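Input (structure):
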């Protein structure tokens, strides 16, 4: 009843000297919707900055809350399905991508820390998995640049289209959005999908996401970055 999924039933409320049962239900409904909307905005700071004063924004976000009501006990899950929902709406692609980036940041901040790995172990091509706080996004717009600038108070750059492989991860208590070479992103994506390191490298080569020359000159540096930034752990 409170979120509007069921008809209001006045016999569930006692009423009082100032409010009828229907008035009471109406108050609960209004307060519930206001609280949900505020919680949603708190979860999507990047999207909120991107939308700015767009007149469509509030109507679309409120419609999301009606069509994809949260089923979690906590309000910090209210934006979990927003990116997928926005991808189905008649809105700019950047909206859905920014919502996905906001969600990856939120999930990474809450995630556990895995065990660090010695860079020398990577040379043996062990089976790895991503650290729990790591997320991978391959963006078609530069929302990561817009988000970082907007949240740090820097001048916000214009939104660009392109191919932006991004790793979202936690460093100490701060979340980072790290643009990486496509080859490195492809290797991490292979690890995310359960491939061994050698299999992930072969898959990236076969898919044309990296070439042999790049691997031969960059792989050692990539491995050092994976260990230094604590992006992977032994599976």
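Output (sequence):
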């Amino acid at each position: 009843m409170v979120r509007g999924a069921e008809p209001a039933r006045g016999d569930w409320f006692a009423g009082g000297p100032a409010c009828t049962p229907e008035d009471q239900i109406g108050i609960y409904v209004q307060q519930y919707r206001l609280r949900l909307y505020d919680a949603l905005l708190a979860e999507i700071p990047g999207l909120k900055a991107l939308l700015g004063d767009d007149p469509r924004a509030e109507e679309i976000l409120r419609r999301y809350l009606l069509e994809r009501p949260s089923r979690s006990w906590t309000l910090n899950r209210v934006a979990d399905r927003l990116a997928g929902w926005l991808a189905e709406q008649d809105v700019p692609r950047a909206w859905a991508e920014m919502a996905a980036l906001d969600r990856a940041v939120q999930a990474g901040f809450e995630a556990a820390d895995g065990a660090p790995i010695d860079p020398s172990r990577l040379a043996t091509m062990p089976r790895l998995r991503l650290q729990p706080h790591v997320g991978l996004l391959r963006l078609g717009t530069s929302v990561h640049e817009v988000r970082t600038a907007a949240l740090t108070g820097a001048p916000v750059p214009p939104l660009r289209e392109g191919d932006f492989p991004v790793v979202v991860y936690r460093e100490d208590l701060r979340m980072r959005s790290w643009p990486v070479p496509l080859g490195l992103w492809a290797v991490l994506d292979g690890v995310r999908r359960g491939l061994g390191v050698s299999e992930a490298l072969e898959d990236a080569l076969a898919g044309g996401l990296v070439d042999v020359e790049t691997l031969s000159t960059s792989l050692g540096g990539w491995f050092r970055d994976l260990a230094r930034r604590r992006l992977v752990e032994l599976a």
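Notes: Residues 1-92 form one domain. The first strand starts at residue 128 and ends at 130.
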